Amino acid sequence: MPGVAFRLRDDRLPFPALQELARLVEARGYDTLFTPEGGGRDVFVTLAAFAAATNRVRLSPGIASIFTRTPAVLAAAAVTLDQFSSGRAILGLGTGHAASLESGHGMVMARPLARTRDTVLLIKSALRGDPSPPPTDVLRISRMRLGTEARRELPVYIAALGPRMCRLAGEIADGVILNWATPAYAAAAVAHVHAGAASAGRDPASIEIAMYLRVAAGNPSGSTRQALGLDIASYAAMPFYRAMMDAEGFAAATARAAAAYATDPEAAARAIPDGMIDALTAVGPDAVRSRLAEYRKAGVTLPVLAPLTTRADTVETWQAAIDLYASR
Fold first, then answer.
1. Which of 53, 78, 152, 173 is the most exposed place for a label (fewest CB within 10 A)?
2. Are 57 and 201 part of one and the same domain?
3. Cα-flanking dihedrals φ and ψ of residue 286, to 5°?
């Protein structure tokens, strides 16, 4: 059966509860468990806790920022997780967002495409045990090596929204992570990934296409739709995502949502029309199954169920979200 992944992060639940949820993810037949960076917990430590509670499911940050960690730190963290999990690690990388980098880390985002290329090439070179780093455009590193016992070419995925990052993923990465894509946008993104792979002399079919799909259990009630609208609006307020959503045909809605979000998030949520919510999310198991089929037809090889999260989430709400899909 084709793989399906799950995204799990909750900074309020204690780790024993999160580990129980990770075990349920594995028991339901999910292929991979992604954990986003952010909040008050380190993503690699969280993934190590999930590794200790599971035996089969692959584990990946979704994503770790290339601006807040150096390539050497990222490589060491990924290798440590891979060793601890007996070879189940994937290294999901991304740029993050300029506003959060500046306000949360005091850093400026510069040349994100070039930095992504350099970071992936440096990490892959270190994992292979190359005697010297490859030529780079932004990062000036003259020596980056891992111990012989640490080397294994574990998969490296790149989070991508636009065509250039998708092409780069096809050229140098083992997978791409899409987010907030309609089936039509996903199909176009897959085409860019495959074009990048072909230009680099790689087999396009060897690149895994992962994609976050926002899902919710229960019925598409008014409160659920309001929460989904708020989630969409929070992303529409970020320049990278707004540009992507505009390209998907939602420019009028994103303009209203982005203008309102900073001062009135609820008004921003109301600016997201039902058609946009329906195009970007799935509520209930029937809708999830239908959307998974649509995205697979578009070329997505690893759909990632990314549950709608709220401050009222409990172990039970997470369990309901996990149960939206079960292969066995």
1. 152
2. yes
3. -65, -45
Q: What is the CA radius of gyration of the chain?
A: 19
Alpha helices in the chain (DSSP H): 15-27, 43-53, 71-84, 98-105, 112-128, 163-172, 183-199, 222-236, 239-245, 251-261, 265-270, 274-280, 285-297, 315-322
CA gap 114, 133 in Å, rounded: 16
pLDDT tens-digit map of 145-175 = 787 666 678 999 999 999 999 999 999 999 9
Residue 221, both tokens: 């009630």
Could you identify the residue written with the tokens 């510069």?
A: 110
| 49: CB partners within 8 A, 6+ apart | 15, 18, 19, 22
Q: Which of 290, 275, 295 is nearest to 190 (CA)?
A: 295
Supply the range of the domain harboring residue 121.
Answer: 5-218+285-322
pTM over 0.85: yes
Give the residue from 145, 153, 149 showing the smallest Cα distance to 126: 145
